[in-house]
Amino acid sequence: MQSYIIYTGNSMKDEASALTLYSNILQEVAERLQCNCITPSSVSEPIFSFKAETKSIEYHYKRSFGGFVAKLTEEEANRMARHDRVVSVFPNGKKKLHTTRSWDFIGFPLQAERAAAESDIIIGVLDSGIWPESDSFNDKGFGPPPSKWKGTCQTKNFTCNNKVIGAKYYKADGFFSDDDPKSARDVDGHGTHTASTAAGNQVSTASMLGLAQGTARGGAIKARIAVYKVCWYDTGCADADVLAAFDDAIADGVDIISVSLGGFSDENYFRDGIAIGAFHAVRNGVLTVTSAGRNNGPRPSSLSNFLPWSITVAASTIDRKFVTKVELGNNNSYEGISINTFDLKGKLYPIIYGGDAPNKDYDGSESRFCFSGSLDKKLVQGKIVLCESRSKAIGPFDAGAVGALVQGQNYRDSPSTLPLAGSYLGLQDGATVYDYINSTRTPTATIFKSDEIKDTVAPVVASFSSRGPSLVTPEILKPDLVAPGVAILASWSPVSPPSDVDGDNRTLNFNIISGTSMACPHVSGAAAYVKSFHPTWSPAAIRSALMTTAKQLIPSENFQAEFAYGAGQIDPSKAVFPGLVYDAGEIDYVRLLCGQGYSSRTLQLITGDNSSCSETKYGSARDLNYASFALSVPPSNSSVSGSFNRTVTNVGSATSTYKAIVTAPQGLKIEVNPSVLSFTSLNQKQTFVLTIEGTIDEALQSASLVWDGGEFHVRSPIVVFRAA
Fold first, then answer.
1. Chain segment 643-681, per-residue pLDDT in tens
2. Which of 111, 117, 196, 204 could form a cystine bridge with 136, CB 3.0-4.6 A?
3. Any catalytic annotation for residue 517?
4. Angle at 124 between CA 497 and CA 157, to 5 degrees
5. What is the CATH classification number for the domain harbouring 360?
6. How many domains does the chain have?
7. pLDDT at 352 exceeding the cut of 90
8. Do 70 and 219 belong to one domain?
């Protein structure tokens, strides 16, 4: 027996009457049904006697809503839930103060130490705009923008404040639609979501129609936001607009540029708007953070952002997941995944297989996938439709169905939101549902509202998250880091349908979505947090601090290991005090580009100076002073040989000594020379060489180097891999 909360809905004005009602309900439920074990010959059924057990109300609610607390058995709780005066019954569980999870999950609580300079940090968000009225962007308690801010606010259908200090929109083609008018206002939701994840205020009553209820917040809650709308509802994100936004953002005085966009496909870095913009940003001391992109994982080399001068972020799970129960008319139930806010209240509806309901000009081989227009409205209206393959269930929605069951085996770690009640079942459960539909003349089913459960194996890299190695410079390990990107709750544009399906009329202030786009602003916020403690640090130093303090993930539990998660999951609090950093600047990236075959003339045009590749060329990408090590081996070769030159800068204790600790698999000999680094002052630099010799018998093998300074542990991943 345990304590349960019984919620009865609206409060009653008369407290005495309310208590009487509660007591009556409780005693009704507490009656024990007992058989007297005698069946007289004159009746066909046993005679039952009732024994009432006295129950007491532990606590009752009386001001804003009605309900009470009482101790019940599980059977009594189930009976109570069916009472016609009861809305819901749930265990009185022990809860802790918490947020919508992602920041707390990575070990970055709301109470983390904050630098006064955080309010001087400006994050530029290149995205679909922002919904300025969101509580996440209220400027209560904020002073005027920092003096370095040189940007402006385009006020057409938009108002800036001391939190959102600037807003601009870009549309080089000059064509605007009624669906997405000429304004920095976000009608898509994506930009509002990413901006609030990076730097949104603390909002204590956030949820998606009751799901994921808690306190939503960004990483750098005191930082300012500058909005650069480059993505449009009807035309996407044009390179010309992206470049124009970078151009302005750098001149406006932002510190971090957050870019949850992708699409790079050229082996020439300077044929891509993000690559060009980010290069000029780093020249001006501005760090660019990008999503891994494409969401085409787990296929190798599926990254769309892998710039050596930015941070590339992959997506991982957190310790919360959403499951959606499906119950059939035969009382069998199955657990799928989705973000389902629709409540069918347990009512059973007829269920039909999409392949049995083709519309005119379609056949079952097409309608089974439930594409838009493929289903006969007369056959599916008011029913639940079983569909093959993961989809948005637009066909059932357009045809008037009450629900949809989609089935498949891809991306089962990422719940989606459908425009109607729905759940994503595994192939075996989907096949069982199909068999049930064909086993009875009147098959029925119902779909329950989603439940939140604990994910005990998190963090794991999401299956959709794009993997390395980089197609252009495979010996620069990408992605750099992983951050929460699955089922992330953040602010949303209330005019945007949560399922991204027209006709879905739910209005939300917060939405739950997944993608590397959601992971990227976590790192943007973390980078801003580090920058607030170290305003003079270069973009590379901040990247290094985040990488060398990251939490290592388990290679065997993540397909492609470091090519899935880089250095690991961010830990913003630790990144403020990394001990040592691997720094780099414009000249280092120029030397890298020279080594990649770019001519002196090309680079002089880019940099505006007289650099000569004959003087500065890196012989290999491995020479870039990066906080990770990647060595490529020819496909047919098992022998390994390579070296890396690195320089570390002391940012920890003035007087300190670090010892190299190498962890390597059998068959690889990894040496560091010198193996001990001694420092006598802050900002002092020391150089070392890491060499790898041996053989590999797998396509990818993982190792690591840790510089152990006692107080600080500076970890870098090492990967040896066969080139494709």
1. 999 999 999 999 999 999 999 999 999 999 999 999 999
2. 196
3. yes
4. 50
5. 3.50.30.30
6. 4
7. yes
8. no
Out of 159-163, 228-232, 264-268, 457-461, pick the least confident.
264-268
**Looking at the structure, do residues 237 and 118 belong to the same domain, yes or no?**
yes
CATH number for the domain spanning 539: value is 3.40.50.200
Mean pLDDT in the chain?
A: 89
Residue 494's identity, in one-letter code, is: P
Exposure letters 215-237 (e unless 16+ CB within 10 A, then b):
bbbbbbbbbbbbbbbbbbeeeeb
- Please indicate, yes or no, if residue 584 is contained in any of the structural domains: no
Q: Examine the fold and report which residue of 402, 434, 454 is the final residue of a domain before the chain moves on.
A: 454
d(CA 123, CA 125): 6
The one catalytic residue among 517, 611, 656, 716: 517
Predicted TM-score (pTM) of the model is 0.85
Check whether residue 123 and residue 243 sit in a common domain. Answer: yes
Do residues 414 and 463 touch, judged by C-beta distance below 8 A?
Answer: yes
Residue tagged active-site, from 135, 190, 623, 702: 190
The pLDDT assigned to 600 comes to 82
Tokens 């970890």 correspond to what residue? 715
Active-site residue 571, yes or no?
no
pLDDT at 146 over 70: yes
User: Encoding tokens for residue 147?
Assistant: 């003096």
Both 200 and 235 in one domain: the answer is yes
pLDDT at position 379 over 70: yes
Q: Residue 95 and residue 84: Cα distance in Å, rounded?
A: 28
190 is catalytic: yes
**CATH number of the structural domain spanning residue 69:** 3.30.70.80
Rounded CA separation 634/649 (Å): 33
- Classify residue 80 by burial, with Cβ atoms within 10 Å: 0-12, 13-18, 19+: buried
426 and 483 housed in the same domain: no
| Alpha carbons within 13 A on the beta-carbon side of 437 | 21
* 245-271: b (≥16 Cβ within 10 Å) or e: bbbbbbebbbbbbbbbbbebeeeebee
- Do residues 306 and 388 share a domain? no
Cis preceding-peptide flag for 146 (omega within 30 of 0): no
> Is the CB of residue 413 less than 8 Å from the CB of residue 460?
yes
pLDDT at residue 78 above 50? yes
Helix (H, G, I), strand (E, B) or coil at 312: strand
For the cut 90, the answer to whether the pLDDT of residue 268 exceeds it is no
Residues above pLDDT 70, as percent of the chain: 92
407 and 447, same domain (yes or no): yes
What is the per-residue pLDDT across 477-500, written as a single tens digit (0 to 9) for each?
Answer: 999 999 999 999 999 999 999 999
